[in-house]
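Render this sequence as a predicted structure.
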Amino acid sequence: MARRAKGSERPLPPPLPPETRTVGQLVGEAIRTYGAHFWKALALGIPVVVVNALVWGASSNPERLAIVPLTAVLVSLSYVAGCVVVLGAPLRSRSALVAFAIAILVFLPFPPLAALYVLPGLAWLALFGLAVPAALVEGLGVRSALARGYRLARADFVHVLGGLATLALVVFLSQFTLYFVLREYADSTRLAAAALASLVISPLVFLGSAILYVDQDARLRSREERGKE
């Protein structure tokens, strides 16, 4: 029986190239990147912990609305840094500053849209979020990067939206599970458990979003090459 079980093992299929990568492999690649750059990736969760602390400390909707600009700055910092980890672009550069400014502009409308319903907020990020890595890697200005991000999104909008939705769902469920484990089986307070869970899990969103840029760039190039044939 042992020999048969060992002989029946088959190697995993090779990962698909970016132009045909599935949403499931996108999540897997984000996890692999997390493991390969663990400490840098873990640091991406620090601004998220600060954002959560600000939201938890706000006692009314006007207070939550007032901290939206600060949350946009903090989340944008994690996103740009995540793009640096995935794409290998320099952090100390003019392109990084432009990408950071674009990230803030793109994220600012997200909380009101997500408050109405999550899907419109994700659709907004899917349409324009790729402008951030485009500015970082391609050295584009604000207007050119936004146009480039929109074009990249349209190359396969279903993949971008589905990827963001899947990443958000995976992060939400993983954070809830880790929070439950920390809360019930470790001597942690509720807030400490929630902070640790968001610190560890939230970087997957930023890493996966940066990988989406690679996917969409490859898809757009492939479509343009087919058009020339």
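Summary. Residues 23-219 form one domain. The two ends are 54 Å apart (CA to CA).
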